[in-house]
Amino acid sequence: MIQYPKLTISDRLNQQRERLPLVDLQETFKESWTVNERWQMTFAITDSLAYEHAIQLLDVQNVIQYDGQSYVITQCTKTVSGGLSVYEVTASHLFYRLANNVRQNNVKTGTLTYGLADAVNFMLANNDQGVTAKFVGDFPKIQIENLGNSSFNKFLQDYTGKFDASYVLDNQQIIFYSATYLKQQPVIDTLFYQHDVEDVKLSLDTTSLVNEVRCLGKPIDKGSGTNDSQTKYQVDFTYRDNASIQKWGLQRGDSLSDERFTDQGSMTEYAQQTVQAQPIATLTTTAWNVIIRQCETVKLVMPNLDWQTTVALNGYERNPFNQFSLPTITFDNASLAVNDINVAMFKHITNAHNHVGKTITQLMAALGDLQNGDLITDEDTIDKLNELGGIS
């Protein structure tokens, strides 16, 4: 018997709880996760009397319990067409709302060196949302200027990458894993192309590529005695990624402005982490009967390309309510892995072209023999065709 994840919907105060129709979830449900970015679900429910009470709960800020985690409805659209009412719902993991409500109004003035635990514990100190943090592995120390005066959500966006960390969410708890720790974990699963996975796709996207921006730090208090209407900043410079410009051409972006910075060195590091100076590379595949674990490291093997690599799973889309819907998984887009598969794919194409070229060359030579009057018996013809057919 197929076991589906448990999914219920409740009002914001959890005073009423109902189930949603399985048939609609089988057709429309999609859970999507991207490491350090998002964890959400979408689905569509058709109005029906049988699920009247559940449908009445399809409203923004109401809560969905799914597979042991809580999600908050952030968007709900009702469409009436052909006499039917359809509700399209988007719900994000509860932690994102909590993290936005956790705000550290105090500031640690100056450019100071922090470990991840020190910085996170400061941001979460005395929070009233019940948010806690756990740390697994060893993280580098970095310099942060004027830490504080922001939400915990903003802190995660700005500094998770700087600490070389990945995180997973468990309701009100956030668990940070160091890159070193994840790389040292034993590989549990090996995925074989055309056995466990299908349709491996490598894509490059330069839509958001930026390699030159103006950086503006904290504004200078001009006082009331100046007539200069132009704002001046303690930090004002142009950041350029010359390697990116040389390879991909100049791509200017909007100014990067953050009043926390009074030091150019610190803001340069911030720009390096913030600006998307390389194309976004994505390696995706569809999976057969694969257990998906967030941030798991797997070995991906493509025998037809004579290629394999060890990559971290950093995203997926799936519908566990439909056994015939294959999940799409996205792997780490580290440049080394992407470069390796690029080389492997190119080598495969080149070998295929060489194979075809060699076969055509020998075929043309055989036809030349015929034109030169070389008498070929039926047995000779069979032997030559067999020889051509055996080229590898």
Quaternary assembly: single chain
Shape field: globular
Indicate the low-confidence ranges by residue numbers.
348-356
Number of strands: 21
**Helix content, binned percent:** 25-40%
Q: C-alpha Rg, in Å?
A: 28 Å
Strand content: 35-45%
Largest sheet: 13 strands, mixed
In DSSP terms, counting alpha (H) and pi (I) runs of 4 or more, how many helices? 10
Distance between the termini: 47 Å
What is the averaged pLDDT score?
Answer: 81
**Structural class determined from secondary elements:** alpha+beta
Could you write a compact summary of the structure shown?
With 392 residues, the protein is α+β, with helices and mostly antiparallel strands. The protein contains 10 helices and 21 strands.
